[in-house]
C-alpha cells in the first residue's frame, strides 16, 4: 500500500485551473522529486499535499486515511520552505521547539529531540543564535532541523537549495541524500533543477502545466523519456529533435540517412530525438549529417559544439548540439560530419508520445 | 538600569502572556468549529464593533440629526423638520455680509474659516517648503534641526494656546520686544486683526514641522544622480529647480497642500484656547460654531449643529476627492 | 538670481567657500531654534515666578523669589525690601503690612521700631529662586492631581486597546483572504476622511445612548478604532512573508498563536510607532473630552487647564505651572522617541 496517494487531485484559483487531475502513489521511504519548468504546478501540488491549500476536487490519502479535509497541522507532515521561513524573532532553539511545544509535549522530550536534531545537523553551537546571525547554509540546516524534530510521516521540501550558492548547493545535496538514507523517511522534494532531481530522487515526477508527464526512476527518465516534453526537458544540453515523416517503414534524418520507423501510419509526422552525447565524429564514409560549427565550448574533458545543419532551411531545426569527448581539433566555421548509432535514437509518434521500438533499454 | 527596564517589561507583559496562553484553548476550539474564516472574523470583530458604533453609526446618524429640531438628544424624541435647519443656515440676503444672514454666526465663522485657510495654508506651505529645502542641504546637525522644527507638533493644542496667550498678553514677551524696539505695546489678542493674525501664526507654528517632514522626505527621495546628471549637462540651477525638484516634489507638495487645507478647515483647539473666538467673533471658526451651537450655548440646537457639520463635511469631501485626484494624476504622471 | 536658485536646488558641497546662502541657512535655523524652543522655555521660566512677578512689566528673564527674614515678634517670615531713605542711603527693611501707598516696615536688627515708608521708595530684595508652590498648590489643593491621573488613565487604556484591536484587525486584513475584505478595507480608509468635528452631535448621542456620557470610557472608546492605526499596521504586516505563517501552521500553531507569537512580535517596530502616536494623540485630546466630561473630577489635564484658564480671574502662576506639567510627557517622548515619530510621518504620512 502506498503511503501518500493523490487521487484525481485538481486545483483551480479563481476559475483558473492549475492542477488537472493528478494521480500519484508514493511509497514509504521514497524520495520523490517533483520537477518541471516554473509555473508547472509542482509547488502547488506540494502545498496541496501539505494541507496549506485545499484541492478543488480529488482526494489525498496518507497511510490509507483520507486527509483531504484535515488541516496542515494534523497531517503529520513537516515542510522545509524555499525561504526557510525561520521565525526571525526566535533563537534557533526556539525555532526548533516551537512546533513541539504547540503539541503540548513534555519539556524533557522537547529538549531531547532538539538536542538530537542539532547533533545530527551539526548546529549545536548555533542553538542560541537568531536566524539573522546565520549564514545561508546554516539557516538551511535549521530549517531542516525544524522538520526533523517533528518526527514527521514525510518531509516536504520546496526548492530547499535554491537560495544557496552553487558550491554549498552541491554539498547540501549530498547531505540531504545522506540524511534521507539515514532517516529512511519519505520525502517529497520540489525543484526546477534537474541535476538535483537526477542525483537525489528515487523517482522523479515530471510536471508540465498542472499535468504529470512522466513518473520514473532517474535513469529511466533519461533513457526512455515518455514524450517529447520529457525528452527535451531532461538532459543538458537538451536532446536534438528532428521532425520528419514516416515513409515505407523508415524516416529520413537530415543528411539523408534513413532509419527504421515502425508502428506508425504511413506518411505521419514523427520526431526523432538524439542526445548530444550520442553524436560522434563520423568515421570514413559513415552516413550522418553535416554541421557548420557556430560556437565551441571547450570544457576540457569534453567539448560542446553548437552547430547549424548545413544545407537546411525552413522548419527543420537549424541548431544542433553535440558533445564530443576530449579536445577534438575543431574550429569555428568548420563543417563536421557527425554519425550516431541507431540504438540511441528516440522515436516519437505524431502525438508526441514515445514509440515502442528499438532503442536503449 | 537596563535590567530594571527588563524586569518592568516582564512585569507588564507577563500577565498578558499568561492571558494569551489561557485563551488559546478556547480559541483553538473556536477555530476547529468555524475554520480559519471564523478566526478572521474573530480578529476583525473587536475593531469593527468599536468602529461601527463610534464611527459608522454616527456618520449615518448625522444626516438624521440634521433633519430634526428641538433640544433633545435622543433621536426618537426629536421632531422631524426636513430641510428646515439647512434652510435656516442658508437663509441670507447677501452672502458677502454675514450680518444680513439669519444665522449670522455661521456665516461669520464660515468667512473667518475661509480667510484663515487662505492665509494659514499659504504661510504653511511657504514656510515648510523653505525649511525643508534648508534641511535638505548638507548641514551639520541636520537631525537636530529637523527635530527642532518638529517639537511643537507634539505639543497639545491647549498647551500651544496657553503658551502663546502668555506671550501675547499685555505684560508678555512680545510686548517686551516691541517696547525695546521703541514701539507702543499692544494687547494683541484684544484687537480683531492681530488676534486673527495670531491664530494664523500660532497654528502655523504648531504644525509646520509636520509638513516640513513630508516635504523633506520627498526631497530626499529625489535621487542625487539626477542632480549630478543635470550638473554634467550644465543645466542652469533655476531650470534644475523648476524641471527636476518641483516636479519630483509635486506629489508631496500636493499632499501637503490638501492636508493643510483639510486640517485648516477644521481649525479649533489651539485657536479656541488662544482667543476663545474673540474679540467679538473675529476668530470664531466653524468647528467652534458647531461645538457651541451643539453643546455649549444655553439654547443648544443639535440639529442645527449637525446641519452645519454636514455642510462642512461637504467641503471636506470635495477637498479629499481633489487630494485623491491629485495624488493619482501625479503618480500617473511620474512614471 | 542664480545664487538664489542654486540655494534652492543644490546641497552645499564640501570645501566651497562661505556663500551668502549659507548665511541665510544658518540664520533661518537659528531663528528656528529660538522660535520653536523659545516659547516653551519662556513658559517654563515663567512657571517658576510668583504671582507678583508675573504681573510685572517688563518681565524678567529668570524667576526671582523675594527674600524674607524671620523677625522677632512676628510668626510668619516677613518680605525684605531695599529702602532708599531721604538722605539717599539705602537700608534693608522687612515689611509688616502695606496700607495704601504706605508700607509699615521694620529693621530686622531692631524689631521694636516701626518705620513708615512710601512704597515708591522701596525695592524688593530678590534673588533667583523658584516658586515651586506654583506646582505644589494646584496639584494638592485644586484637582490637578486628579486631572493628571485621569489623563494617564485615558492615555494608557486607550493606547492598550488601540494596539490590541488595531493589530488584530490589521492581522485579519493582511493575512486572511475572505469575502468582503476589500469592502472592509475601503470602509476603513474612507473614514480616514471623516474627522471628529463632523460627527460631534451623533457621536455624542451614541455615547449618551451607551451610557458612557460623563465617564472616562466615553472619552476612550470612540478614539481607539483609529483607521490610521489599522492602516499602518496592515501595511507593515503585509511585509511579513506568508511562508512564516504557513511554517507555524505546519508547526501546529493555532491562528491565535500565529497572531500572538509570530506576527505580533514581528510587527513590534510598527506597534512602537503606533503606541507613541497613540500616547501623544490621547494625551493631547481636547475637544472630545471637553464635550463628554462635565463632572470636574473626571476632567483630563487638557480640559482642566482650559477650564482654569477660562475663569474670570486667571491665576496665571498656577496655569503656567500646570501647562508645564501637561507638557512633560510629550517633551520626554520628543527627547527620547522623536526618531520613531519622524520616521513614521516620513514613511506613512500619519499624524
Stretches of chain B where pLDDT is under 50 for at least 5 consecutive residues are 331-335
CATH architecture of the largest domain in chain C: Orthogonal Bundle
> Radius of gyration of chain B from the CA trace?
26 Å
In CATH terms, the superfamily of the largest domain in chain B is MetI-like
- Count of structural domains of chain B: 2
Overall pLDDT metric of chain B: 84
| Quaternary | heterotrimer
Question: Which superfamily, in CATH terms, is the homologous superfamily of the largest domain in chain C?
Answer: MetI-like
CATH topology of the largest domain in chain B, what is it called? MetI-like fold
pLDDT under 50 segments of chain C (min length 5)?
A: none
* Number of helical segments with 4 or more residues of chain C: 15
Overall SS class of chain C: alpha+beta
Kindly provide the name of the CATH class of the largest domain in chain C: Mainly Alpha
- Tell me which protein chains meet in the greatest interface and how many residues each side has: B-C, 109 and 104 residues
Query: What is the CATH topology classification name of the largest domain in chain C?
Result: MetI-like fold
Order of helices and strands of chain C: HHHEEEEEEEEHHHHHHHHHHHH
| DSSP strand content of chain B | under 5%
Could you state the order of secondary-structure elements of chain B as H and E? HHHHHHHHHHHH
- The Cα radius of gyration of chain C reads 30 Å
Q: What characteristic shape of chain C results from the CA principal axes?
A: elongated
Number of individual domains of chain C: 3
Can you characterise this structure?
The complex is a heterotrimer of chains A (361), B (335) and C (351). With 361 residues, chain A is of the alpha+beta class. Chain A has 2 domains: 4-228, Rossmann fold (3-Layer(aba) Sandwich); 238-348, Nucleic acid-binding proteins (OB fold (Dihydrolipoamide Acetyltransferase, E2P)). Helices cover 24% and strands 32% of the residues of chain A. Chain A contains 8 helices and 20 strands. In chain A, the strands form 4 sheets. Chain A has a 6-stranded mixed beta sheet with strand order 6-7-8-3-9-10, with helices on both faces. A 5-stranded antiparallel beta sheet of chain A has the order 13-12-11-14-20. The longest helix of chain A is centred in the middle third of the chain and has 18 residues, at 166-183. Helices cover 76% and strands 0% of the residues of chain B. Chain B is built from 12 helices and no strands. Mean pLDDT of chain B is 84; it is low at 331-335. Chain B has 2 domains: 2-66, no CATH class; 91-334, MetI-like fold, CATH 1.10.3720. Chain B is an all-alpha fold. In chain C, the strands form 2 sheets. In chain C, strands 2, 3, 4, 5, 6 and 7 form a 6-stranded antiparallel beta sheet that branches. In chain C, strands 1-8 form a two-stranded antiparallel sheet. Chain C has 3 domains: 2-46; 64-128, Roll (SH3 type barrels), CATH 2.30.30; 135-348, MetI-like fold, CATH 1.10.3720. The longest helix of chain C is centred in the C-terminal third of the chain and has 33 residues, at 316-348. Chain C is an alpha+beta fold. Chains in contact: A-C, B-C.
